[in-house]
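User: As part of a screening pipeline, I want to sanity-check one entry by hand. Below is the sequence and the SMILES for glutathione. Please return the complex as structure tokens so I can compare it with the automated output.
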Amino acid sequence: MSLKLFYAPGACSFVPHAMLELAGAPFEPVAVKLHKGEQRAPEYLALNPRGQVPVLVDGGEAITQIVAILQHLDAQFPQAGILPAAGLARTRALSTLAWMNNTVHPTFTHVFMPQKFTDDEGAQQVIRAFAVNSYRGLLGEIEAMAVQVTPWLAGEQPTALDAYALTLLRWGGYAGIDPTTLPATWALAQRFAALPAVARVVERERLQLNVYQPPTAA
Ligand SMILES: N[C@@H](CCC(=O)N[C@@H](CS)C(=O)NCC(=O)O)C(=O)O
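Assistant: Here is the complex for your manual check:
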């Protein structure tokens, strides 16, 4: 078995990246510089024609989409608790994971890359402003979950949900949302980042957890 993860620092690929380290899996991390457009290089498009991270290469097979990658890793490393093992706990975790991936994450894409949705620059500003508000509301939903944690989002063990929550909260800083105004999620993200396996990923990706910049007085 040989595993390779194509990731970009600070991107959603943090989720499988953290899970691979938590699982103690032998893997090769390969950084893709999105700001330099490396995801659109022909060699990368041969791996993922959609030009996105993450990609997990297992042997000769390239696997895309966070939900599928996590399911693949969970099957290979069941002891790691990437998701709860079974029953309603697993179903509920999958439900939250799907929502993070198909709703919260794309809402941030509207904030960060409004040019993906229109080439009209005025309309991009409108999309961005609208999406920032929506994103604030969605982070509020994660905060409501984090308030009830016991101690992790899916229960006793850290899972992919905590890694996604950290990523989404961190991105909020780029949307002008101060993470400390969401204290339960902020505490969860700090606790998760402090796990030794996750700290290795934070260091490899050179992540600053709080990227929020308060507005300067005009
Ligand atoms: N639905 C995809 C989303 C992947 C995605 O949005 N990746 C972003 C980084 S967070 C990306 O590679 N963006 C580069 C681009 O679109 O040019 C998944 O679950 O893997």
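Points to compare against the pipeline: The chain has a mean pLDDT of 97. Strands lie at 3-7, 28-31, 55-58, 61-64.
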